[in-house]
Write a structure and sequence with these properties.
With 323 residues, this protein is of the alpha/beta class. It is 42% helix and 19% strand. The chain is elongated, with a radius of gyration of 23 Å.
Length: 323
């Protein structure tokens, strides 16, 4: 009996050791739009989400980063590298990154971390049934972009000129600009597009504004611009132009007002998709989620610095006030 028990124990232990030895951490490719140092809060949100889903870095997964540092033309080479390294999942942070991953592979699952209008931009067929190998989260940015004009006019009633900061390399930004232009229509508000494709263009783009009289800035959602939020806000404050965006993380950097979904929340939530896919669920069977909460945030420090009085009604409605 003792010998039999020993044999059973030995066989069981052998299976356990073999299973442990065979378990290889999943390889998660990450097509990052910005740079490692400035995108840290979003990567940490992703790691927190993976931890929430029972996945431990090093044991259950490893992250393979490809940082474009604002240069969207780098995405194809990163995506190809991730395919060659046999990634189990590719996380894509912007529309151009999604398209690069889709061109590189039709079999490796792609998870969108927070994408502007994925249906309208043609990266999925529908939210309910995305089809193909792509799923994840939408940002709802296109639906709230026109709300930014209302918020700006509420905080600066006599606004006569607005700078629109956008990245023309992001397919969603020009269409959002058209929406805002249509909303303004024949009104006597001048719109001044400020196109920034790469982060190193920021200084020259804002230097060109010094001779102009712009009352405020609207910063459209683009992850290169989100990644450069500290620099964008530093320029806007230097020129005494309050910035309004639909990215709450911008308010933390000093934007006057933001109305939109938290990118950090979306990154954390994208881990749910990674876990389901690693458990064997097909991307096509995972509907794309839209944010359940749109946050209104106000930075009173910036308002006081620029001498702007925020309406009490807005402060009452705000989900978050930075003072």
């Amino acid at each position: 009996m003792k010998r039999r028990a020993f044999l059973v124990f030995g066989i069981t232990a052998g299976w356990s050791l073999a299973a442990s030895a065979q378990r290889t951490p999943a390889r998660l490719g990450f097509l990052g739009t910005g740079a490692a140092d400035t995108s840290g809060i979003f990567v940490e949100a992703l790691r927190d989400g993976l931890r929430d889903n029972g996945l431990q870095e090093g044991r259950d997964y490893i992250l393979d980063f490809g940082w474009a540092e604002g240069d969207y033309q780098r995405f194809p080479q990163f995506a190809d590298r991730m395919v060659r390294s046999k990634a189990d999942v590719i996380l894509a942070t912007t529309i151009t990154a999604v398209r690069a991953a889709q061109r590189a592979t039709t079999s490796i699952p792609i998870v969108m971390t927070s994408i502007n209008d994925p249906v309208g931009n043609g990266v999925v067929k529908s939210l309910a049934r995305p089809d193909g190998n792509t799923t994840g989260l939408a940002s709802l940015a296109e639906d709230v972009s026109t709300k930014l004009v209302e918020l700006l006019q509420a905080t600066i009633p006599n606004v006569a000129s607005i700078g629109i900061v956008l990245n023309p390399a992001n397919p969603s930004n020009p269409s959002m600009l058209k929406r805002i232009e249509a909303l303004i229509g024949p009104r006597t508000v001048r719109l001044r597009p400020i196109e920034i494709r790469l982060r190193n263009e920021l200084d020259n783009a804002f230097a060109a504004l010094r001779g102009e009289r712009l009352d405020a800035l609207l910063v459209l959602p683009d992850f290169m611009l989100i990644d450069a939020r500290e620099a964008v806000i530093a320029h806007s404050l230097r020129l005494r132009m309050p910035a309004i965006t639909n990215v709450p993380e911008y308010t933390d950097a000093g934007a006057l007002v933001s109305y939109g979904a938290s990118r950090r929340f979306n990154y954390r939530r994208s881990a749910y998709y990674v876990k389901r896919i690693l458990d064997g669920v097909k991307p096509a069977d995972l509907p794309i989620e839209q944010p359940a909460q749109i946050e209104l945030s106000v930075n009173l420090k910036t308002a006081n610095k620029l001498g702007i009085s925020i309406p009490k009604a807005m402060l009452t409605r705000a989900d978050r006030v930075i003072d």
